[in-house]
Structures
1.
Amino acid sequence: MTTLHLIELTCPICAVDFRSQTVVATNGYGGKRTDFHERATGMQPLPFFVHLCTECGYAGVTRDFGDDVEITDVLREQVWTELAPSLQHALPSGSLKYEHAAKVAEWQGHDARYLADLFLRAAWCCVDEGDTEAERFFRRKAAWRFADALADFGAVPPEERAVLTYLIGELWRRIGDHEQAAGWFEQVADEVTEPAAQGWVIEVANQQRVEPREWFT
Ligand SMILES: [Zn+2]
C-alpha cells in the first residue's frame, strides 16, 4: 500500500502556490523487474516522488522547490518556452513529471547519472501507464546517459560500474536492440571489482543475454 500526503509548494519560476502529493510510506512491493523496477501493490508510488507546477511546467523533487534553489533567467525562459506548451492536462502523468524534471535538471547542469535515473523513472512510469512507445524513448535516453556517466572517469564508484553496465544492457534489451544489449552484458564481468559480492551481476547478465527473464526470482 502507498500512503500519500499533501504538501504545499511554491513554484520558483512562476511563484504560484500549489499542493502536490508526496509519498509518506510504501510497503508490500510485489517483486522487481530485471531492470530494477519494483512493482508496488495497490497504487504506484513512483509518480509522487516528483512534483510539477501545472502553471509553467517546472518540475523536480521537493528540494527543487526550496527557497535556496537558484533560477537563472535562461532557465526561466527555457521552462516557459519548452515546458509550458506541453501541458495539456490538469493532472500530469508520472512520466511527464519525470520528463520535465529531467529537462530542468539538465538545464541546471546536473550530472549524467542523475539525469539517467530520472529518465529511467519516466520509462517505469510509462510501463505503468501502458505507453510502450514513450517507454522505449525514455529507456533510450536513460541508456545513453548511464553510458555517459560510465565514460566520465570517476563519475561512478568502481563498485557500482558492473551493475550500471548490466542495467544499460537490460535497457537495450527492453528497447529491442539485442546487439547493443549483448555488447553491454558481455562487458559486465570486466567491470566487477569484488567477485564474491558481485557474482550475481555476472550471472544475471549471462541469463539476460541467453535466456532473458522479465522478473528477478
Ligand atoms: Zn510554475
Note: Residues 11, 13-14, 16, 53, 55-56, 58 surround zinc ion (CB under 6 Å).
2.
Amino acid sequence: MLPAEAQKSSERIAVTAKRMIDVRSGKEITDAVIFIEKNKIVNVGSGLSIPDSVQVIALGDVTLLPGLIDAHTHLLHQYYAKYGDDNSNRLLEMVQLGPARRALLGARLAREMLEAGFTSVRDLGNAGINADIALRDAIKNGDVPGPRMFVSTRALAPVGGQFQSVTPEAQQLIGQEYIQISGVEEARKAVRQAVYEGADCIKVIANSGARRLSSEEMKVIVEEAKRANLPVAAHATDGDGPSMTAVEAGVSSIEHGYTISEAVLNLMAKKNIFLVPTDASGVTRYQDRIKRALKAGVRIAIGSDIYYEFPGMTRGQASIGMYKTYVASGMSNMEILRASTLNPADLIGSNSIGTIEAGRFADIIAVKGNPLNDIGVLEGVVFVMKDGKVYKQTLH
Ligand SMILES: [Zn+2]
C-alpha cells in the first residue's frame, strides 16, 4: 500500500529577525520578515504584518543571510597530514577507499558543511567513480542531511591526472579518479560520458604541473559542455599558459589561478568568466591577485577547496574560516557576501539559490552580529534552514 499523502504543508511559516542582508541590492533590511511556503520563499520585507494563522520562527537580534554556497569543495575526499603530502595521500586514498566508503565519508562531511551554514556546494571531483552523484541524490532524497550538491563526476585531465609518476601497475588506479584525455575525440567522449552519468558541471584539469591539455582539447570540452548546458570549471595554475588556454576556450570559471596575469583577467572580465580563488584561512601568498581581479572587473565566487583533515574541527568549521582571508585581500564585506551567495549561484547557473527573494528556495542562515561590520561572525552560524526545513537552531 502506498503511504498516505504526506501531511498537507500548504501552511506558511514566517522567519523574523532584527536584520537581513539583501545581497543583490547591498542593503541592510531591518525588522525582516520572510514568508515561506513549503520549500520556497514567497514574500520578503521589512515589518510585514503576520497573520495569526502563520507559524513564526522569531530569531530576534541576529542577521539573516542567504545560505552560503561553497564554489569549490571535495566532500568525498579527505587527506591526513600524518600520512604525508598530497602524493602519498592520493595513493593511499585510492587503495583504501572505494566509492561506497567515500560516499559514507561524504555523508559526514556534507552534514558538517550544512551545520556550518553552507546550503549549497559545487563539488569538483576527487570522488571516485560517481560517488558524488550517489551522495548528491541521497541528500536530495532526504536519506542523509547535507547541502544541495552540484557535482562534476570525475575530472577530465591530462594523462596521469594529478598523480605523480607511478608504476604501470599503479596507473590503473588513475582512472578511478580522473578521465585522462589524449586528443579531441577523447575529450568529446569524456564530456558526453559525464553528461550521461548526471554531472551538473564539468571539471577540467587544464594543467597538472607541466602536463597540459591542448587548446583544441579544451575547446571541444567547452563546446560539448555548452551543448548540454553545463558550466566548465578549469583548474589552472603554474603561470599564464593553462589559464589563458582555458579562458580562450570559454570555460565558466578559473579555479585557483594563483599566478594569473592582467591579460587573462581582462579577458575573463570581457567573457564573464568567474575566478574561484581557494585561499584557506591564513593563506596570504596570493592575495594580490584578488585586488587585480576586482580591478579588472572579474566576478569572484569563493571556494574552500579544503580536503585535509583539520584535527578538532569539522569540515564546515575548517571551510568557513576562509572568509576572513578575503578581508585582508582587499574585498569589502559585502563583496565577500556576494562572492559566497549570489555569484556562485550565477556560476552554477541557478536562479533558485543565492538570495532571499520570492520564488527562491528557502535556504536561509542566521548569524549573531552583523557581517557587514565583522565578516568573522559567519563562523558562528546559529540557524540553518535548507529547502524550508530547519537543520540547526541554537538560539533557543
Ligand atoms: Zn580542488
Note: The chain has a mean pLDDT of 95.
